[in-house]
Write a structure and sequence with these properties.
The structure holds two protein chains of two kinds. Chain A is mainly β. Chain A is built from no helices and eleven strands. Helix content of chain B is 0%, strand content 54%. The radius of gyration of chain B is 13 Å and the shape is globular. The chains are: A mainly beta, B mainly beta. Chain A binds chain B through residues 4, 6, 31, 33, 35, 40-45, 48, 50, 55-56, 59, 91, 93, 95-107, 109, and chain B through 6, 8, 32, 34, 36, 41-46, 49, 88, 90, 92, 95-105.
Chain lengths: 113, 112
Amino acid sequence: NAGVMQNPRHLVRRRGQEARLRCSPMKGHSHVYWYRQLPEEGLKFMVYLQKENIIDESGMPKERFSAEFPKEGPSILRIQQVVRGDSAAYFCASSPLESTEAFFGQGTRLTVV
Amino acid sequence: QKEVEQDPGPLSVPEGAIVSLNCTYSNSAFQYFMWYRQYSRKGPELLMYTYSSGNKEDGRFTAQVDKSSKYISLFIRDSQPSDSATYLCAMIPNQAGTALIFGKGTTLSVSS
């Protein structure tokens, strides 16, 4: 039973480019969460999604950031026109429908140069 | 006041010591409490998950919740160098499907 899969593990983008981060939840999990972790800081909630639905995006920056979890395929976190301040580790977590236990992937480390 | 407070450490102990890690919180609506372990450059790994006040034990780990004091703890007995990691507390205000709120994490180093 594979865990939460994130790819790529490392992503380098130049300022102004787009970054796409992918997350495949654990089998049977219908909830997906995205978190950002900056150096020396804790995990900050960004967005919570179910299939084809954004449930809570209160942690998402208002501009340049978007997320989706389509009916088929992985969840995508998209960052447009990246800036140096977007450099961070982005983690995805998933949980089953009736559980609060969330399991994390290994993260995508985004570096903006 | 932040919702979840956690001393970042670092905390250094010798092998075999008992380690106590703690978090306090301000929101009395938090009902579910978790401890995650995160090794450097890895994703958080769920260690313990509790709901009610009291103790929950799993091997060398004991999670303790005191809702009246808004205080949770993780105890590690017979600590090992492999326990060296950052420990994150997390909590949820209500039922399934709500985002976790994390503490900043405590960095633990166990020396052999």
